[in-house]
Amino acid sequence: MAFKGQKFKHYPESLKMEAVRLHVEEGWSYRKIADHMEVQDKDRVKVWMRKYREDGQAAFENRRGNPHKVETEQEREIRRLQLEVDVLKKWLQILNREGCKTDTSLSMN
Fold first, then answer.
1. Distance (Å, rounded) from C-alpha 9 to C-alpha 1?
2. Is the CA virtual torsion 43, 15, 58, 9 positive or negative?
């Protein structure tokens, strides 16, 4: 049973695939895999095996978040720079309100 504020342990895809391999190819029991790979309980390994039988390796892919929105590195950089510009504009407004004489037309030589 889940409790409010409870943190769940997430296992990487590589660990899940290794657990499946140990069971299928090596014939290890669920309990032995759970103990060896430090998985909290053997039932977790059973769930991974069931998902693997149903969907193959695709069952372990991370599907969290919006699958239709893939933000590129360039989009992240544009967003960061836009935030920086907005902060600098606000800073300039504050300086102008305080009576500081700033010349925005100065060019750097």
1. 14
2. positive
CA dist 1 → 6, 32, 46 (Å):
10, 25, 18
Query: Rounded to whole angstroms, how far apart are CA atoms 11 and 23?
Result: 17
Report the alpha-carbon distance of residue 90 to residue 8 in Å, rounded. Answer: 41
Query: Which pTM was predicted?
Result: 0.54
Whole-number Å distance between alpha carbons of 66 and 45: 27
- At 59-101, the pLDDT tens digits run 888 777 666 666 788 888 999 999 999 999 999 999 998 876 5
55 and 15 Cβ atoms separated by less than 8 Å? no
